[in-house]
UniProtKB/TrEMBL annotation:
UniProt xrefs under PANTHER family: PHOSPHATIDYLCHOLINE TRANSFER PROTEIN (PTHR19308), START DOMAIN-CONTAINING PROTEIN (PTHR19308:SF14)
Signal sequence bounds: none
GO CC annotation, single: cytoplasm
Domain START: 101-260
Domain of life: Eukaryota
Protein name: START domain
Pfam family name, one: START
GO molecular function: lipid binding
Length: 370
């Protein structure tokens, strides 16, 4: 790679002021914060306007993409090598979801308290954050089904750019790859390779945790973040839900303080945003069976096109799947179609009922708004 650079330090200094550094707080030209900002400008240069003429760059870069499988469970579930990491993330969530010392208030939105906590000696540019409170008139199943749809997550998670499944260990346990948004040209995208798991509780309560794990893909060209825990704790309280969302992440790089402030607020706002998404758009379709004999391979929803596709592998006994379809999202005139030997489907009110013979093998269910 060949690069020709002209760097105007006075312009860099003006950018430092814009993003929150003032006077003596401005880093020196040889300091790590200054060099980190220059590095970011090199990787994502701003538009070359009169105000943003910091860098002039001529370069050619080959950036390898990340390959993800089209089917994370083509032959069914595989053994889970990450149970210890899941258990650690669950312990972390339970220790930080409520109470505790050191928490500072960020804001309160729609009854959800947003907080942050700095830990002495922690190298992360981002403190621990959480959003918690009582969500009115919402079912646990509606919230869980929305959390578990990565193809719709960008509609309610301000930090989420994209994601995909890498391996599936169970119906609700899988290895994933995700990309977190950058902030303009100041902060580049981060990516995460992790494992997600749902822990069912009593009377409809549940916990969802994500945490980083080792392994490919490691050729994305992005900075790999370290996720200690991104966890949901949800407990039904009558018609309401007691919800807590806790995130501890290290972006593994320097981030300007003004940008940190935005990220710190964006993350716990997910509790408010996902609630508003459900109220305004509706709930993505979900399988209501508690005991699913079939093995789930992939599940994708397109909210804008009102389309839902599920791919599975039949179990060794006959099964009847019920899939709840929210009329707010799909309307009343939706259709259900299936592929697979002997598999049949019909509408039953706001449910799609799919009858699957034992040993059918792979089959698909498609729900489409007419």
């Amino acid at each position: 790679m060949r690069m020709r650079i002209h760097l105007d330090h006075s312009r860099v200094a003006s950018h430092l002021v814009v993003i929150g550094f003032q006077g003596r707080d401005c880093p020196t030209r040889t300091g790590p914060a200054y060099l980190a900002i220059v590095s970011t400008l090199l990787s994502q240069p701003p538009p070359l306007t009169a105000h943003h003429s910091t860098l002039f760059i001529s370069l050619s870069v080959y950036n390898m993409g990340v390959e993800v499988p089209s089917d994370p469970a083509p032959n069914g579930y595989v053994s889970n090598p990450h149970q210890e990491k899941i258990d650690e993330a669950l312990r972390y969530l339970r220790s930080e979801k409520q109470g505790g010392e050191g928490w500072e208030n960020i804001d309160t939105k729609d009854g959800i308290i947003l907080e942050k906590k700095y830990v002495q000696g922690d190298s992360s540019a981002i403190p621990i954050v959480r959003g918690h409170g009582l969500v009115k008139d919402l079912s646990a199943q509606a919230l869980l089904s929305t959390i578990l749809q990565p193809s719709a997550r960008h509609l309610w998670d301000e930090r989420f750019a994209s994601g995909a499944l890498l391996e599936r260990y169970g119906r609700r346990t899988y290895k994933f790859y995700s990309v977190q948004k950058g902030v303009g040209w100041l902060v580049s995208e981060r990516d995460i390779v992790g494992v997600q798991h749902v822990q069912d509780g009593e009377n409809g309560a549940f916990e969802v945790v994500q945490t980083s794990v080792e392994g490919d893909p490691d050729n994305s060209g992005r900075v790999r973040a370290t996720l200690t825990c991104a966890g949901w704790s949800v407990v039904p309280r009558g018609n309401d839900l007691e919800v807590a969302y806790v995130v501890k992440i290290n972006p593994n790089g320097s981030i300007p303080s003004a940008v940190v402030g935005k990220i710190v607020q964006d993350i716990p706002l997910a509790v408010v945003n996902i609630t508003n998404f459900i109220r305004n758009k509706g709930v993505p379709p979900y399988i209501t069976n508690q005991d699913l004999k079939s093995q789930l391979r992939t599940e994708v929803v397109d909210v804008e096109k009102r389309y839902h596709e599920i791919r599975l592998i039949a179990g060794d006994t006959d099964e009847e799947l019920k899939i709840a379809v929210d009329p707010k999202l799909f309307g009343g005139n939706w259709s259900v179609g299936v592929t697979g030997d002997g598999v049949a489907a019909e509408k039953d009110g706001d449910n799609a009922v799919v009858k699957v013979p034992a040993g059918t093998g792979r089959y698909e269910v498609k729900i489409d708004a007419a």
